[in-house]
Design goal:
The chain is of the alpha/beta class. Helix content is about 50%, strand content about 20%. The protein folds into two domains: about 170 residues, Rossmann fold (3-Layer(aba) Sandwich); about 180 residues, Up-down Bundle (Dehydroquinate synthase-like, alpha domain). The chain contains 13 helices and twelve strands. Bound molecules: nicotinamide-adenine-dinucleotide and zinc ion (ZN).
Length: about 350
Amino acid sequence: MRTLKVSLGDRSYPIYLGEGLVSRAGELLRKAGCGEQVGVVTNPTVAGLYLNPVQEALARSGFRVTSILVADGEGHKSLKSLSAIYDQLVKARFERSSCLLALGGGVIGDLAGFAAATFLRGIPYVQVPTTLLAQVDSSVGGKTGVNHREGKNLIGAFYQPKAVLIDVEVLRTLPRRELLAGLAEVIKYGIIEDAALFALLEEKLEKLLALDRGLLEEAIAASCSIKARVVEKDEREEDYRSVLNFGHTIGHALEALTAYEKFLHGEAVAIGMAQAAAISVGQGLCDAESLGRIHRLIKKAGLPTAIPSNINTPELVKKMEVDKKAAGGKIKFVLCAGIGKTQFCWLSPQEIMARLAA
Ligand SMILES: NC(=O)c1ccc[n+]([C@@H]2O[C@H](COP(=O)([O-])OP(=O)(O)OC[C@H]3O[C@@H](n4cnc5c(N)ncnc54)[C@H](O)[C@@H]3O)[C@@H](O)[C@H]2O)c1
Ligand SMILES: [Zn+2]
């Protein structure tokens, strides 16, 4: 098992990464200082696979466990699910020292994290991410929240976990499409910060997709370290943290325009990254060779690069303007200044439209 650290003063926490950590949840929660009572928040899909081993591990370490199930799917990252979680915490008499354990993908992590942030004005929680996306992205950094019917993630809080337990073994049951979507975020870290990670992916992608443990750990560790360093610099996304939005301005707009039904988040981000890289070349920031490498790697990972022909570009750009990062008519873009480097850039809707059409 390796241990990475997110250093945020008294809110610092470890990220444990290795095999079989699900069965070591009890011992690791003890280490994190969790009290006697633990609420495991999960969904039926993940519960069927991993709830038993987690419950047994917690019981072995003397914890009292309450399991809290939320229906599977983004639509259940809602105030309604949150309210149902509170009901169960009240019923089971959870106290300030009681702890929540988020067992699932980003939906469960965001929801359980926000429940922990708000119940009794904040109780400790631990992330046990079970999708690649959650392992390299959502479980680290303390963004928690739920969706509002008018928009995603409109209600939430920055609230850091006490620990993150990443068990690479759980990725064996993850549907391939979800795995590839998570991989898009790993590719993103390579593009924005880590040319060596990008080269590793280029060289060993097949092995990684065959779920080679050592490689998975290496890629996840590299990704989490980058996320941790970015969060340490700018925990509340006042400025620098938005570097993590590379590919997301276009990606989010594509997701919104297709009513969150056509693409998984990572798929939309893959297109967003390919397009942002092309815009970067157009702006004279990025060389054509890097652009070629980015497109080739995304495609090799079985992810899309092109905006589907039935998408109306002006409508797509309009969606970007309503994104919360828009200001003064121009849209803030994270552009690529060669693999491993980024630059922020403000672009007008006309400039984006011209580049996307090119
Ligand atoms: N907090 C953050 O910083 C942050 C960052 C990125 C994304 N997010 C949020 O994360 C969410 C998306 O997360 P996601 O992509 O993990 O989706 P998800 O949580 O919906 O999980 C995807 C699917 O995989 C299933 N699943 C999970 N683990 C499994 C396993 N090991 N084996 C088999 N099936 C498994 C789930 O039940 C679900 O059906 C979005 O709500 C997004 O807003 C948050
Ligand atoms: Zn993302």
